[in-house]
Backbone:
């Protein structure tokens, strides 16, 4: 029994169909609890008022946006090295989820910034980095959709993902160098002094877990769809060969 | 390898090679800038380093879709892949030829266009130095993008979408160096970073470009 | 050169499987088979342009010259410049024998863009001679050649064989060459069982 068994599409589909309902419930409950707790049962911030609560959407979305790219990077590496189709399809499936999360983080960030800084947008390093990440997602998705042969597309997008990751990190440092910024530090870090108050952090953790499960659910679901699309394509090809 | 470089240079210079198109584009963009932001000298002087960097970058981008597509269409790439020359060398030489025929003229033209935009006197040398250090990275990254999209019809727009995000760090450090130079500040850090990016991309990216090209040749 | 148990795919679908044959110096092998049966894919695989699904190609590493439908001719360069370029890439010496063999001497300084389709094809085939390689992998080499040029080309191949070379040629016309014929359609890939229809989606 090894993890690579799930690289078999059939095995992947049957297993994911079994666990998906559970994950749906988990994601739904965690998101609901976290958001309701965060929105209605936390105090207003003494400086920011109620607008601080947008954090409960903004921070988890940003967290997923980055980790979705990281997951795509790992999945691309697995495809390049071990050539499991499911892995390539999972990377493909994660990209639209990642780009939506990035967009949510950008939009909620703009709303929040409008309240606190009085402007919709500043070219702050964090915001700029997310905008650049958004562009990387767009390029990745565009390349997938431009190439007809699925294996060729998987190969090319994997290499783009690897190269893009290096350049994304490079852009992050370049942007930091370019503008020191206005954004507050990381909302959660291991260094206790820097963290947001405990009253906020607990519901925030719940929200992040909820968003994490939501991401997992969406990616599993979309990967299943991609596998079926791939299979339909293969079946149609068989028909043509039989004819 | 020398043969390939010489052939590419010759092809660029012959009729229909597109040599000079990038330069003309650079000139036009620079001329359009005052029309769009207004003719005030102080404003132009302030934005000149950034505008010139952006113009050079776009002119460079414009010529990328011909970089490998022509060799793809007439079968040269197939024959290259079966020749003793490794594809890693082929893409490196292609990038070098692109740099010589497209980027180098842009670097040399930039100070002339700087006059049009009232670039401060102190800025000229640093503009040229930053472009000289940064444009090799633009050519090498562009070759990677061209290799990714070589098999696609009408891949030009996709090529821009893929390459422009990869250009971000180079543009930031390059324009920063040119701007600091124009303001009379220290340019050492951005120039070092720029040189680092150029050196690293030149050393590593050809492997990715060749891998991508092999996939596309299948 | 030995081909053993070669399986190849086109566009993700297997087209040929179990292709095995041997190509010895001095011999020519003519590939035949209906359109779309995988001749081109087979030749590209043997030339190393795409990986096989299974099987091995041994004995011809770095000794293959490949020529297909497009000849990699640059229209703005002259005939001489085009040939010299490939001679330098393959580091194989003079272009003189190639010029003579394909009767290109009179066109030496003509830009390739001013050549007719048949003349371009002759230039493309002349490239084979400047590669200095032993195994020629040729995909429909006689397209757009007139009858005299076909004879000329057959003569060049014969001399190449006599010099210890070998040729693998996919063609529909009779070149009058001595050599075996291999019908590719006998290797047509069978569709895999639906039950095994798992990992590779084939």
Residues:
């Amino acid at each position: 029994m090894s993890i690579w068994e799930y690289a078999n599409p059939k095995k992947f589909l049957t297993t994911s169909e079994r666990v998906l309902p559970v994950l749906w419930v988990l994601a739904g409950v965690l998101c609901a609890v976290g958001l309701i707790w965060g929105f209605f049962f936390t105090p207003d911030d003494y400086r920011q008022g109620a607008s601080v609560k947008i954090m409960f959407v903004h921070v988890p979305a940003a967290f997923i946006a980055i980790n979705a790219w990281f997951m795509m990077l790992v999945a691309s590496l697995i495809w390049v090295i071990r050539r499991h189709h499911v892995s390539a399809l999972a990377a493909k499936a994660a990209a639209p989820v990642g780009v939506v999360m990035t967009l949510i983080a950008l939009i909620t960030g703009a709303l929040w910034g409008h309240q606190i800084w009085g402007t919709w947008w500043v070219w702050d390093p964090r915001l700029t980095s997310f905008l650049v990440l958004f562009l990387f997602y767009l390029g990745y998705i565009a390349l997938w959709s431009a190439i007809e042969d699925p294996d060729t597309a998987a190969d090319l997008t994997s290499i783009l993902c690897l190269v893009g990751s290096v350049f994304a990190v490079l852009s992050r440092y370049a942007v930091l160098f370019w503008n020191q910024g206005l954004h507050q530090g990381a909302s959660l870090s291991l260094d206790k002094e820097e963290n947001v108050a405990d009253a906020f952090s607990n519901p925030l953790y719940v929200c992040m877990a909820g968003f994490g499960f939501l991401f997992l659910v969406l990616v599993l679901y979309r990967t299943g769809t991609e596998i079926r699309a791939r299979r339909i394509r293969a079946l149609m090809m068989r028909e043509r060969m039989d004819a | 390898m020398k043969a390939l470089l010489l052939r590419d240079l010759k092809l660029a210079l012959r009729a229909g090679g597109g040599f000079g198109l990038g330069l003309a584009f650079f000139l036009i963009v620079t001329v359009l800038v005052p029309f769009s932001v207004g003719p005030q000298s102080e404003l132009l002087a302030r934005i000149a380093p950034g505008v010139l960097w952006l113009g050079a970058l776009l002119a460079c981008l414009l010529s990328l879709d011909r970089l490998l597509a022509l060799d793809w269409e007439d079968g040269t790439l197939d024959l290259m892949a079966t020749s003793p020359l490794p594809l890693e060398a082929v893409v490196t030489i292609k990038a070098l030829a692109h740099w010589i025929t497209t980027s180098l003229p842009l670097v040399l033209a930039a100070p002339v266009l700087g006059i049009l935009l009232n670039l401060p006197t102190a800025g000229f040398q640093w503009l040229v130095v930053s472009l000289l250090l940064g444009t090799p990275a633009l050519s090498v990254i562009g070759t990677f993008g061209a290799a990714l999209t070589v098999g696609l019809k009408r891949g030009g727009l996709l090529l821009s979408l893929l390459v422009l995000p990869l250009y971000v760090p180079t543009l930031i450090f390059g324009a920063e160096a040119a701007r600091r130079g124009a303001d009379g500040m220290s340019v050492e850090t951005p120039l070092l970073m720029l040189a680092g990016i150029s050196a690293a991309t030149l050393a590593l990216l050809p492997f990715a470009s060749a891998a991508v090209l092999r996939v596309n040749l299948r | 050169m030995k081909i053993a148990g070669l399986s190849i795919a086109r566009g993700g679908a297997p087209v040929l499987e179990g292709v095995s044959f041997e190509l010895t110096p001095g011999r020519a092998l003519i590939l035949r088979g209906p359109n779309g049966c995988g001749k081109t894919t087979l030749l590209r695989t043997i030339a190393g342009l795409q990986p096989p699904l299974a099987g091995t190609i041994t004995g011809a590493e770095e000794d293959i010259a490949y020529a297909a439908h497009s000849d990699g001719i640059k229209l703005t360069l002259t005939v001489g410049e085009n040939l010299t370029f490939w001679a330098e890439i393959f580091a194989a010496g003079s272009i003189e024998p190639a010029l003579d063999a394909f009767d290109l001497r009179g066109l030496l300084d003509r830009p390739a863009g001013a050549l007719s389709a048949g003349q371009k094809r002759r230039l493309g085939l002349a490239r084979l001679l400047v590669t200095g390689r032993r195994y020629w992998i040729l995909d429909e080499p006689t397209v757009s050649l007139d009858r005299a040029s076909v004879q000329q080309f057959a003569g060049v191949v014969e001399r190449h064989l006599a010099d210890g070379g070998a040729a693998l040629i996919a063609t529909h016309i009779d070149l009058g060459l001595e050599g075996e014929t291999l019908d590719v359609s006998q290797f047509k890939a069978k569709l895999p069982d639906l039950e095994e229809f798992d990992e590779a989606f084939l």
In short: Chain B has a mean pLDDT of 90. Residues 2-31+41-217 of chain B form one domain.
